[in-house]
Design a protein that fits this description.
This protein is about 40% helix and about 40% strand. By secondary structure, the protein is an alpha+beta fold.
Length: about 70
């Protein structure tokens, strides 16, 4: 591995460590409360549109990206 490749790999690892990515599942009201709290702390970076779980399950799921620092 060249020095350039090592530097690039290290930078990517440091960037990845700055964020946590997760799926949250719940009722629309519960998700709204969680998103509001994340936004108020300044940690919310990205949130996807709500998606139905499918079938007869009335819950929604959303993808979140949060800052760790």
């Amino acid at each position: 591995m060249t020095t350039r490749e090592r530097t690039y790999a290290k930078a990517n690892n440091q960037r990845a460590a700055q964020f946590t990515e997760m799926w949250i599942v719940g009722s629309p009201e519960d998700l709204a409360a969680m998103l509001h709290a994340a936004a108020q702390t300044g940690r919310l970076v990205y949130v996807s549109a709500p998606r139905l779980m499918g079938g007869d399950d009335t819950r929604h799921r959303r993808y979140l990206r949060l800052r760790t620092h």
